[in-house]
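Model it.
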Amino acid sequence: MSTLLIVFGFLCIVLGLICSLGSPIPWLGRLPGDIHIVRPGYSIYVPLTTSLLISVVVSMLLSFFRAFR
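Modeled.
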């Protein structure tokens, strides 16, 4: 379990560096279903569809790795 957590932490760091240093994914965060409300004085952003998409991709990757364990 500790090795899995170390690998997962390393992957999070690598993905964070890629996202911050590289060009962002242009469609991520602008999907249909993402809510963005702009009013004078404040702005609210709720990425519902983006969160669901990321959750499905992570779940598929974890089930793929679990199958070969």
